[in-house]
Design a protein that fits this description.
With about 325 residues, this protein is mostly helical. It has 15 helices and eight strands. β7 and β8 (about 245-250) form a beta hairpin. The longest helix is centred in the C-terminal third of the chain and has 21 residues, at about 295-315. It is rod-shaped, with a radius of gyration of 30 Å.
Length: about 325
Amino acid sequence: MAFTSIDVCAHGLTCPAPPYKDPAAGDVIICTSDGVELHIMKSQLLAVGLDFHGLLPQLRPADSGSKPKVTVQETSALWDKLLRVCLLDGELPYTLDDVSALLEVGRKYNIAGMPARMRYALLQPAFLKTEPIRVYLTAIACGLQDTARTAARLTHKLPNLHHAAFDALQNVSGIHYHRLLAFRVDCGEAARKLTVPLKGDEVLPGWIAGTPAHWRLLSMTCLGTCAESCRTLRVVETDDKTATIYVRIRDAWLVYLEKLGHMLKDQPNAVLASSPDLLEPVVASALGCPHCAKTIYRSCTTFSHIMEEKVEDALSRVQLAV
């Protein structure tokens, strides 16, 4: 079959135009809203369930032998992407607008497999990193609940949810955006609880005070000047919890936990536990002591990683209602 034009691929290389742009191809013509004619076999459309609500099987060639036509409301640009998906013919890179439009037209014409195909497009790292709110709203609009949950968790990396994708909001109920806001509040509270004690007369959270491998990272064994900036607390001596002892915990660590709790409440993002703004004061509090200065960097690195893991675990237990 002779090709009448060439397309430019994403990498700048040229390749033959898809067959449906060749007037000699196909046995039916799709006429787009911008006046472009696409030539394709009815059998190819029917194979993916695209029968225009029962119209396609009834189409017959005119007496003159010309191919029957179907007029659609979408543009040729959208139909070009749609046919590439349906025919598995060199799909082009998508924007989020493309994905939303393809999902909508797939729903309109009841195209088999379109939601599943676009699910993978929505989960592109570039979309999830830069526009997780739009991915969430688009997924909700198209019934892709697992994708919506994935995107919702990635909104935690955003400082806030005040700047929603209002164009995407048009396709969903306000309740879904409210659920995303409520999910963030629930996650923030779950993360914040890791930084505070369960009882008012305690200072350290129970998961730290009850685990020697955790509280030892925050404790001090020296008798130098940094010992003046510490708090004596009761902790569990051994992992089998047979006894409790009193140890000195650096005040800077208590400030770290307090500030981290406030930050996590507003933005439940585990990586905040390793924020330089939080850890630098802890390091500075130990540099004046020759003994503590040797271990403070390792303690900060180890404990902040433990904190990140605890936050991630807590967030994973919070469920989003979709």
